[in-house]
Amino acid sequence: MEAQGIGMNDQQDEALLRLEKVSKYFGNVGALEEVDFDLRSGEIMGLVGDNGAGKSTLIKIICGIYRPTKGQIYLEEKPIQIESPHVARRLGITAVYQDLALAEDLTIAENVLLTREPTRWGFLQRTKMREMAQLAMRRLDIEVDSVQSRVRDLSGGQRQAVAIARALHTTPKIAVMDEPTAALAVKEVGLALKIIQSLKEQGIAVIFISHVLEEILEVCDRITVLLRGRKVCCSNRGDLDKQKLMSRMMGDIT
Amino acid sequence: MKKDETTVAKLLRDIVQHGHRIKSRYLLVVVLGIIWTVLGLLSPVFFTSSNLFSIAVSVTSIALLAIGQTFVILTAGIDLSVGSTLALTQVCSVSLMLMGVGPVQSALIGLGIGAICGFLNGFIVTKGLPPFIVTLGTMGIFRGIALIITGGFPVRLPYENFQYLARGKLAGVFPIPVLIVIVLYVLASIVLQNTRFGLHIYAIGSNEQGAIYTGVRASLIKLGVYTISGMTAALAGLIQAARVISAYPSAGTGAELDSIAAVVIGGTSFFGGTGNILLTFVGAIAMGTLRNGSNLLGISSFVQQIVIGIIIIAVIQVTSLRRS
Fold first, then answer.
1. Closest-CA distance of chain A to residue B57, Å
2. Residues 197-226 of B with CB under 8 A from A
3. What is the ipTM of this complex?
4. Is the entire prediction scored with pTM above 0.90?
5. Domains contained in chain A, CATH given
6. DSSP one-letter string for A129-165
């Protein structure tokens, strides 16, 4: 199994984030079974698998939404507990969720800065919030009429942009991108992929989930394949093509 | 009177000239303006300061309950226990006074009991139970405790001076309870619009799961809003007891629904996430005005209930239309 050979070399490099034999059960149902996973600084790790393979469960554990039933998580080789999304954010782990997790009634600025609001004497600094949100959106090359617009009134692509801006404006260590291109028009997909690559240049590690294997093969450095809650392999992009990736997702490792 | 009519005329002219620019959320203010105008024209006593203050005083309880209720409903929750909390706190405070505890201490303990009632609601809600069911349960529990404490009878307030809380007037003109209500609304508005706590309340009401995923500590925020609701209910209870110089274990029966009505008429979405607490105040005033006006015009209280009911449904219809 070539994948395992690569895996052994990988472990000699220091992992930014490492999951060791992580399992997650919902009652008696095993969603993840002893999954090892590692992520290095400044790499883009693709995470693929069929529906129900455990991708969502894995990233929800990394983001503090689920607690693992068994196993240990290490950040910069220190054992950690990610007890809540709040803790995850403090540790420098942010995420763009598939359903975006935006508050539709709030403005763009409020969404982008939610839980990171600038305050003085306990009061929100609204002007500073607007400026920071504008900067965050501009850095991603995204045009909106006003950061005072409510998210309710935005298009799918603009909402996606807000979710990405929120995840990235604090320069996290790790950015989890769950299907960030799913709701986008073709030309917006290119922009989203460019954003993901620019994160890598800033030294941010990215976990990128997509059903579109071409996107995965285009931007990822390594690719982890899950199947029915287990890790099938973790390979360098160069060792894979679409055909091989497909067959691994289906459980054919030869 | 003459002067009042010209003010009204000016208001009408403003509405006619700028009506198209008035945002739908200020519709209520406009509607209230129209109601006031009509009442002012129909009843000569409506615009007298004593009548206006009497409207304001009559809505004190609802207005106070509606502060906490707005916080709760903004998180897409509901607090059905405020009427019972109101009764429990006034019964406890007055009973303490009868046991020889000082009036100020008793009042503060009453506020504390209100806070505990609210905290308890919030605590159970954060365990994942639906707020409607939780507060329906505590509504019965708090009422039951209030009835047990006094054996079902009212208890008389032993300190005459305590009446000042309800009947006192600042500078001899401005009723103290109205002042308290206004100050608290201003404070509540500042908290909701200008603090992280306020913003997170709106975020939870808009998309609770999303807010949690983003790192909002929803449990803490919910504990906070229900505790606030308990405390405003307690304050309403104290002021009410001061007004009638007694504590009734049956006080505030049905007040939870009035407070919800004020919040909803004020345009706060029943589904959470949007709303302006100052408009809750307008909503409470609108309810008080309808009742007062109906009384002045000799319309029966039975009809008032129908009118308020229709307004609630109409407002919900408008807000849900705006959402979709």
1. 32
2. 199-200, 202-203, 205-207, 209-217
3. 0.83
4. no
5. 2-92+174-249 (3.40.50.300), 105-171 (no CATH)
6. HHHHHHHHHHHTT---S-TTSBGGGS-HHHHHHHHHH
